[in-house]
Amino acid sequence: MNLLHEIRDDLVSESAGLSNTLRKARILAHEIDLPELEQWVRSELAGYSDPDTVPEYRRFQPANVGRFHGPFGSQLTNQPLPTTMLPEPLKSFAESMVFQQSVSELEELLSMDSPLVPWPIEAVILAREHITVEGMELAGAHKPIPKHAIAGILDSIRNRLLDFVLDVPITDNELQDGTFDRSSVRNVFHTHIHGSQNAIAVGENVSQALSQVSRGHLPSLLQYLRDQGIDEDDVLSLKQALAAEPEITEKELGPRVASWLGGMINKAASGTWDIAVETAPKLLLEALGKHYGW
Q1: Number of domains within the chain
Q2: Domain end position, chosen among 142, 170, 193
Q3: Which of these, 202, 211, 231, lies nearest to 287 by C-alpha position?
Q4: Nearest-CA neighbor of 22 among 176, 30, 186?
Q5: 165 and 51: one domain?
Q6: pTM for the whole thing?
Q7: How many CA atoms are closer than 13 Å to the CA of 213, on its beta-carbon side?
Q8: Are 266 and 78 a contacting pair, CB within 8 Å?
Q9: 3-state helix/strand/coil string of the chain
């Protein structure tokens, strides 16, 4: 069995490790003298040292979650952080996540319970004057890494390589004697490996019209949330939080509603709520904003 057949079989086998399959692809790249393929495989196996060279399927728009400290030892945890008002380059840092890790490191992340990327303390300090919760101070922040994002990257690598080996115009005899058309092989590589395949769902189809939510009309807000797939228990929890919350006079959520919001972001990150984690904060904040009349 030649290398092309081995790689094809490995890519559709549940037991074959992706790293080992990529090593076979590196040998194939050497045999067919295709440096572009060899460089891509090297980067996937060892990781991308330069963030500017990381392909689009390894880029992700994350959610950001913070921890706030207040007087008398009070604190709020797992609070979603709005990023639109942050200055550059802090805004770009908060709104992007680039996965430079090797395939084996990504697989290790996938096996972790709740992987995350902490904000450096310098970023937390810079963000304090722009992100506030009722007089409390931002004490820490992180970006949850949703497992579906990591799984999507690994699937994209596997699928791109599979598309390449399925469509590469090389017969068994041509592979053996090297008589294939290298320019055609190169075109197939660029089409499938660097093509515009969708690697990670970012929720562009999740956004819904908010016209049904009216200011101060609780039933319309709760029904809208049900329509977004939020469990009834969570809808009722928000109803209770809104009933217990003091009247909102500024464009800041009270602690009970903010706590509920943080819990929903965690559910999005863990997959308990079936929505892209980077979409959840915007969807919920817009709905609450319409309810409050912001």
Answers
A1: 2
A2: 193
A3: 211
A4: 30
A5: yes
A6: 0.65
A7: 23
A8: yes
A9: CCHHHHHHHHHCCCCCCHHHHHHHHHHHHHHCCCHHHHHHHHHHHHCCCCHHHCCHHHEECCCCEEEEECHHHCEEEEEECCCCCCCCCHHHHHCCEECCCCHHHHHHHHHCCCCEEECCHHHHHHHCCCCCECCEEEEEEEEECCHHHHHHHHHHHHHHHHHHHHHCCCCHHHHHHCCCCHHHHHHHHHHHHCCCCCCCCCCCCCCCCCCCCCCCCHHHHHHHHHHCCCCHHHHHHHHHHHHHCCCCCCCCCCHHHHHHHHHHHHHHHHCCCCCCCCCHHHHHHHHHHHHHCC
List, for residues 49-97, the tens digit of each pLDDT value: 888 888 888 988 888 999 999 999 899 998 999 888 899 999 999 988 9
Q: Which residue has the tokens 């057949």?
A: 5
- Examine the domain organization and report whether 51 and 177 are in the same domain: yes
In this prediction, residues 284-291 reach a mean pLDDT of 86
Confidence tier at 9 by pLDDT (50, 70, 90): very high
Question: pLDDT averaged over the chain?
Answer: 85
- Residue with more model confidence, 176 or 155: 155
Q: What residues contact 119, with CB distance under 8 A and at least 6 apart?
A: 64, 94, 127, 140, 141, 142, 143
Whether residue 154 sits in one domain with residue 29: yes
Using one digit for the tens of pLDDT, what is the confidence trace for 200-255? 333 333 344 567 788 888 888 888 888 788 888 899 999 998 888 866 666 677 88
Tokens of 145: 């890494």
